[in-house]
Recover the amino acids of this structure.
């Protein structure tokens, strides 16, 4: 998912547009995690970037994406850029 979303949706007020966008991101993550894992892979990992636009987007952990969306919304910027790319992950043994 690489998209720029606007909070000034014609169908919703900005807070409701933000809530709908959060729901869309959560559904996307759930859908990606349900995909079959390749051989030798333990889980799906994600490379994420969030910002006001593509140029200002910074790297974020998947758990920080929703919070960063809130930060962009609270700053008053009319759009948010979200990039979430799935990649295979292998757990490292502890020891």
């Amino acid at each position: 998912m690489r998209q720029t979303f606007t909070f000034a949706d014609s169908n919703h007020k900005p807070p409701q547009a933000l809530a709908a966008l959060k729901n869309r991101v959560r559904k996307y993550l759930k859908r990606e995690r349900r995909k079959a894992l390749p051989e030798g892979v333990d889980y799906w990992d994600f490379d994420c970037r969030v910002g006001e636009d593509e140029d200002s987007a910074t790297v974020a952990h998947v758990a920080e994406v929703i919070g960063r969306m809130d930060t962009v919304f609270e700053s008053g910027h009319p759009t948010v850029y979200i990039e979430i790319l799935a990649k295979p992950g292998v757990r490292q043994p502890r020891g």
Remarks:
- The beta strands are 2-6, 43-51, 58-60, 79-89.
- The longest helix spans residues 14-34.
- Residues 2-89 form one domain.
